[in-house]
Design brief:
This protein folds into two domains: 33 residues; 156 residues, Porin (Beta Barrel), CATH 2.40.160. It contains one helix and 14 strands, in the order H-E-E-E-E-E-E-E-E-E-E-E-E-E-E. The strands form two sheets. Strands 1, 2, 3, 4, 5, 8, 9, 10, 11, 12, 13 and 14 form a twelve-stranded antiparallel β-sheet that branches. Strands 6-7 form a two-stranded antiparallel ribbon. A hairpin with a 2-residue loop joins strand 6 and strand 7. The longest helix has 32 residues. The chain starts with a helix and ends with a strand.
């Protein structure tokens, strides 16, 4: 009888301690996330389908950041975030041939240019669900409305690696609509 009681007590302790560890793990991850993080690298790829006057042009692109001063701060009570700074994107774009009735009217081409992203200040609320950071929405003030998901791939006291997927609708000028899909990775260091 004593053996059964001891065995049941050990099972109960094991179950309770494993539940407690799961709970601490999530709180620990959120605690580590709190603070200010500086962007050290970001890369992404995507597609932009721009429509104007009934014609659609598809552009494949990739970007690599440089000259980064971008920071994001995660706070608690309430859970808010604030971004500041900027960066430059070395953007490589490949535009497909423009066809009318199956004939090429404008041949496709590839170009590379630097695109400065300045004044990237944004605030909002955030939450986490496992490795997913929810609630982050970025608007660069140029009509960008992004529906994005952010997954924590690596998190330590000093570094954070996030992968992201975004779908955006841009209106860069009257009568022009761009549907943009992109995926990428951000690497940040804690300040």
């Amino acid at each position: 009888m004593k053996t059964k009681v001891i065995f049941l007590a050990l099972i109960a302790i094991t179950i309770l301690s494993s539940c407690k560890k799961d709970s601490e793990s999530l709180n620990s991850s959120e605690t580590i996330l709190l603070g200010t993080w500086e962007l050290t690298a970001m890369t992404y790829t995507g597609t932009n389908a721009s429509t104007s006057q009934g014609f659609t042009t598809v552009t494949d692109f990739s970007g690599v950041t440089k000259d980064m001063t971008y920071e994001i701060e995660f706070s608690e009570n309430p859970k808010t975030y604030e971004t500041s700074g900027g960066y430059t994107v070395e953007l490589t774009s490949t535009i497909e041939d423009v066809l009318i009735d199956g004939e090429v009217v404008v041949p496709g081409y590839t170009f590379v240019n630097d695109v400065p992203i300045e004044g990237a200040a944004q605030t909002g609320s955030w939450s986490s669900d496992g490795n997913t950071i929810e609630g982050l929405v970025f608007d660069n003030g140029q009509g960008m409305d992004a529906n994005s998901s952010y997954e924590i791939e690596e998190l330590s006291d000093s570094s954070l690696r996030i992968t992201f997927n975004s779908n955006m609708v841009l209106e860069p000028s009257p009568g022009v609509t761009s549907d943009v899909e992109l995926q990428g990775e951000m690497v940040l260091e804690k300040l």
